[in-house]
Amino acid sequence: MPAEPMVEPASTATTRDALLGGRVMLTQPRQGQRASADAVMLAAAVPARRGQRVLELGCGTGVAMLCLAARLPGLGIDGVEIQPDLVALAGRNIAANGQEASLRVLPGDIRERIPGIAPNSYDQVFANPPYFAPGAHRAAADPGRALARQGADSAAWVAALLRHCKPGGRLTLIQRVEQLGALLAALAPKAGSIELVPLFSKPGQPAKRLILRAVKGGKAPLVLHPGLVLHQPDGSYFPEIDAVLREGAALPI
Fold first, then answer.
1. In 51-63, which positions are buried (b, 16+ CB within 10 angstroms) versus exposed (e)?
2. DSSP 3-state assignment of 90?
3. What is the pLDDT of residues 79-118, one digit of tens each?
4. What is the per-residue burial (b if ≥16 Cβ within 10 Å, else e) of 87-115?
5. pTM metric for this prediction
6. CA gap 207, 155 in Å, rounded
7. C-alpha–C-alpha distance, residues 115 and 107, integer Å
8. Greatest extent of the chain over all pairs of C-alpha atoms, in Å
């Protein structure tokens, strides 16, 4: 992420940080699960329209929800998070950003029925699922970060996204490239019209992450878009990526 202005720590356990050039203010854990460029780019990839109902699964402290709301006012956005401390922080962040009328966060496990979140009721659903299958990677020392990195598997996340999406609604997620096969298998046959956008850290390097968008019940052929390169050779962000991270622009897909 580009350097953003930072205000005084909220407590010894949390910090207050600015995203999108100060348009989003965030209280987050000093250690553990913190805001990342992936969450901001995920929000920038959601093809929502004013008036739509949107759901984020695994919303953490509300980073992506708040970034999406800053880019597209007029959405109704719900978030679900399994960790109670992050649910509390997300609620504080929603209030601090003046978004209580349109955003809310509920506690819940994406593998179970979530009270207050109805199936087949959202125009857009999105997630930044854990990047590693359970047991496939050394767990992080912080329990919250470990859960964020190695929670339920890809099939469970896709099933939850599909369960809450309206027929004809859209799914968006960001994931590691090696999870693509599992994601495609989980989406079939309930979703199609899949779009893939590889994300390259620097020119000439293999893609490590990708954006995937799909339509519940979609039938159009898969589209592989030209990839997005994030960093220039000197390490700075390319202008179109910098506009996403600092100014809240839509991802140029």
1. ebbbbbbbbbbbb
2. helix
3. 999 999 999 999 999 999 999 999 999 999 999 999 999 9
4. bebbbbbbebbebeebbbbbebebeeebe
5. 0.88
6. 22
7. 9
8. 51
